[in-house]
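Q: Could you fold this chain for me?
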Amino acid sequence: MSEQSDAVRPAVQIIEVSARDGIQNEAVLLSTDTKLQLIESAVAAGLRRIEAVSFAHPTRVPQMADAEAVLAALGRREGVSFTALVLNERGYERAVAAGVEEINMVVTTTETFADKNQGSTVEDLIAGWDRLARRAHADGVRPTVTISMGFGCPYEGEVPTATVLEVAARVLEAEPTELILADSIGCGVPSDVTERFGALGELAGDGTALRGHFHNTRNTGLANAAAAVAAGVRRLDASLGGVGGCPFAPNATGNIPTEDVAWMLERMGYDTGIDLDALLEVTDWLAGQLGHDVPALLGRARPFPQVARLDR
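A: Sure. Below is the predicted structure, expressed as structure tokens.
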């Protein structure tokens, strides 16, 4: 590929979530210093948006008990965004006090998951998001919202597209900077992704960017990511090594692996800004910290050699 064609490759931004969504389901409690090394190594490899912490209650998610310490050590820096998941007013106030520039909140589509995950109802979650998003706008903090169980629920089964759109219409009223549709349990397939992101794109218009969050529970995560990009999505969540899962969703496995999806996108002609060789070193290190192999495959096969390709 020529230098000129390289320069005009469309960009897809990968949001690295291993430091939060990735390690929250791990039995090993990583130290603050280890988390900082993970995050700093991801930044050094070219990742520019990192979901660094969650302001959840430490008894429910002990892996996130040091959220303030992590953000204090990271500080703010030009061109890099460290984001935080918040669940309620108390979490939001902790995040703002810690200096966070971007928050994410989760609204789900089913009552059973809302109760098991957050002890709430769908209506109360939407109302809570609305209050905090408006506070965030006033405070100069970027609010993003995730619709979890966007394809199916482990307790209630299929989630129709119409239900997703009903929730999306409600959360869009508070003007999120991004709307993330999450396949939290990895039950979606590419045709679902095409349909739902197409419908969400029409609903959101140009005012709100769309983002995909896929889990690889049934080995469809990378296919779903490719389908989302084909549907116009230019932001994807991923986790180094494919580690992760949801403590409140039975049998949920990790997010799509950052290195696998970055390699796929680069081969498809998209620019991710990621140094894959550096990223693979981080994944090898992370596996050692966790004490087990990671699900990602690129680290085993290694990147395929670059070859000259004829312009098509």
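A (continued): The longest strand covers residues 49-55.
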